[in-house]
Amino acid sequence: MKKTEIQLIRNATLKLNYGGKTILVDPMLSPKHSFMSFVEQGKDLNPTVDMPMSISEVVGNVDAVFLTHAHPDHFDPAAMKALPRGIRMFAQVSDEATLNDTHFTNVSLVDERAQYDNITITRIVGKHGPDALFEVLGVVSGYILEAEGYPTIYIVGDCLWDNNIEQAIEKYNPGIIVTNSGGALFMGENRILMDVEETVKVAQKAPGAKVIAVHVEAIDHCKVSRNELKAVSEKEGLNIIAPEDGEVVSF
Ligand SMILES: [Zn+2]
Question: Ligand 1 centroid vs 149 CA: distance in angstroms?
Answer without folding.
Answer: 31
